[in-house]
Amino acid sequence: MAQREVDAGALWQRFAARFSKRDLLEGAIVAVAFLLYFGVRGAVIDRPEAAYWHALDIIKAQRTLGFFWEDDLNAWVKDRWFWAQALNLSYFYLHFPLIIVFGIWLYYFRREKYTLTRDAFLASGAIALVVYWLYPVAPPRMLPELAQQFDPNAPSYVYSFVDTLHEKLGYAYDTQSTRAFVNPYAAMPSLHFGWDLLLGLGIIWACWPAGKGPASETHLRSVSTWVLLWTAVGIGVALPTLQVFAITMTANHFLLDAAAGGIVALLGIGVAVTLQRWGYPLARESLRRLPLPGGRRLLVPADAMPERARAARWR
């Protein structure tokens, strides 16, 4: 038993040695932030009747504007197994799993662009939580069930929506294992679209050549740089575009939910830029006055440090 404890301790020391204190702190920040996001999101008091009527308000607004197509899109895909599964997989896997992978890659290979991207995700998530609490909206997939409870005179198109994720993929949001972290009436804004928009912009920005002047122009002319850049642009545009079709055709969101998600994502970028330009410099100045050796280096993002200090940090 003692030998096992020694082996486990040695393995942990070897694992921890691969990461700096900054790495461990960053992992903790992101993990706690997302746990809080999903925890608060799931803890919001459910208001099913309000969420149903708010969803009908969105449908009425879209019909007035001339683009309520979600019922027809869902009707088209629900009987086509291949397309339904393709959209289901896009909805599920081209979102949170991809965000995690990209975040890890960005942290280790594009550190100077990591913090702004991270802050944009976290700020947009915080803004969305406020909206979810103030204005709960039922997704289209839940309207048939809610109409039976609250609206005996509901229009026929309300009953036509089919949850393709549950029907074709066997995935359901209201399972016992996920219920504590899920608010079924958090359709507006759609962070499935908003965060995929941030993901696409982040991929493009991460691959965009840095520098100015003749050296940069020479760099841009290299074939490999152009291939990487335009591949990133293609992926960055495709991800949010595909997600618009995925969220609407699987009956998980309305088009106005996607529009709201895009606005929230842009607000998140604004908050992140504000932190980068004013928030972190003020924090750095405050930390300089604290009698904590290494405190500034640990608590202030590496990419928010002056260039000279950052270079010294990573030697």
Keyword list:
315 residues, mainly alpha, globular, disordered C terminus
Could you explain the architecture of this structure?
With 315 residues, the chain is mainly alpha-helical. The chain has helices at 2-17, 21-43, 48-65, 70-78, 81-93, 96-109, 111-134, 143-150, 164-169, 191-207, 214-221, 223-249, 255-288, 295-299, 307-313. Helix 7 crosses helix 13. The longest helix has 34 residues, at 255-288. The two termini are 41 Å apart.
Q: Termini distance?
A: 41 Å
Shape: globular
Sheet bearing the most strands, described? none
What is the chain-wise order of helices and strands? HHHHHHHHHHHHHHH
- The helix content is over 70%
What's the layout of helices and strands?
Blueprint (H helix, E strand, L loop, with lengths): L1 H16 L3 H23 L4 H18 L4 H9 L2 H13 L2 H14 L1 H24 L8 H8 L13 H6 L21 H17 L6 H8 L1 H27 L5 H34 L6 H5 L7 H7 L2
Helix pairs in contact: 2-7, 3-8, 5-12, 6-7, 6-10, 7-10, 7-13, 10-12, 10-13
Summarize the structure.
The chain is built from 15 helices and no strands. It is mostly helical. Mean pLDDT is 83; it is low at 304-315.
